[in-house]
Amino acid sequence: VGLTGADAEAAARDWSLLGGFYGQCMDEAAVETAGMAPLEPVLTAIAKADKKDLGATLGMLQAQGLDGLWSVGVFGDLKDPDTNMAYLEQAGLGLPDRDYYLKDDEGSVALQVAYRAYIAQLLEMSGIDAAQAKKDADDIYAFEKALAQLSLPRDELRDPEKVYNPITIAELDK
Phi and psi dihedrals of 152, rounded to 5? Predict the structure, then answer.
């Protein structure tokens, strides 16, 4: 692409890393061999957590790049772009938008049923028996629906004044 010297070497390294990453993702045999082992520490921490451990457990998930009830990012302050600010944003929904949980038309209900079945299937794949997986899937869906009811609708998320609520770390601690 016309790169020379150090730029060409850096690009070659990047492409090599990208190729290796892609190859690992596509290696289904290795994925099947590894099974659930890579997820065991995370699943164990979640299984052992109780209400008092919620903050620490969510922090552990966030540190591993997994959003829990919120996502965290650093961006320019909406009212002072020269200043970076940590942002907490609503998260925790498995479906793309709160409306998927709240609408009750025929298509939405069919999607909700399919989503609960998908959650149950994932739980079964993790080793949970079918009856327990269905119960857990229903509980997970109910929790996500409750979060959806508390989430801002899409039009409000696009309104900078609605989502700009700066607070200090001390205020966040309360």
Answer: -70, 140
